[in-house]
Amino acid sequence: MTAFSVLDLVTVREGSDVSQALADAAELAQTAEANGYKRFWVAEHHGSPGIAGGATSVVLSHIGHATSTIRIGSGGVMLPNHNPFVIAEQFGTLDALFPGRIDLGLGRAPGAGQVLGQALRKDLHRAAEYFPQDVVELRALLTGDVDLPIKATPGLGAKVEMWMLGSSLFGAQLAAQLGMPYAFASHFAPAHLDAALEAYRSQFRPSEYLDKPHVMAAMTMIAAETDHEAETLASSHEQAFVRLRSGDPGRLPPPIPEYRATLPMQAQAMLESLSTAAAVGSPRTVADKIERFIDRTKADEIVFSGATYDPAARRHSLELVMERIAA
Fold first, then answer.
1. Which of 203, 141, 138 is nearest to 170 (CA)?
2. Which residues, 6+ apart, have CB-to-CB distance to 186 below 8 Å?
3. DSSP letter (8 states) at residue 11
């Protein structure tokens, strides 16, 4: 059976603040746990006033204390921003706090513009070139499969489930080479989905950690009682995406009915291009779209992204779709 999980950006709404966003994320994780979702992942982004998940390991500690059984993890940590040893210590600490529940999804993109490199005092382009080596080093720091001159404590021996994230062929091929599970960011890069999954599956090399390919694919998912209500709720997410792509990120705005009709054709086309990895509508509409997406991808897991201005609406969305899927 396909497993279902949740990806959260810890969204900051207009008229609200980071403290409330963190409280909302914890409540969303509790809802996911109560409704049978497998994982709750937090994404690392920087430099956006509407996203509060930058200190990902700290946010995960907060989420872990608010829950008890659901797996929690990074979707993902952008490794070029960090030193592998520090990430090993952070996620080793998380494993000690929440044993058997920690996932470490790794991405190569910096998660912000070029100014992030200046803020981090790093050459992010060069750091990205070392990404494969850093992944191998990080895994060794956690597993001890390579004898390194220094041991991460906490870290060494932690039962952290490592994932490769990607939105292109690069991550797919690296995940296959290293025998890691692979999560594809189809919610914002659906055009490369099929090619990436084919590359991952065809090139996969079994490892001592994974004996066969294991795929997670991301969808934007917002469910409500009716198609129209869900489409209105989704307009907040769409506004934020258009602003981000226009170079003007901000806090999550309130919904606007018939929002797409107000946009120029280029922006409408951009949003429409994402629809192949989106399920917005009534529970029946959403379930049908999810089923078609699973048929297309043959994914072992689906992770749901998507933000609503009213946090209760997203919690209700998770409840509605799981009720329908389980029926």
1. 203
2. 193, 217, 218, 219, 276, 277, 297
3. B
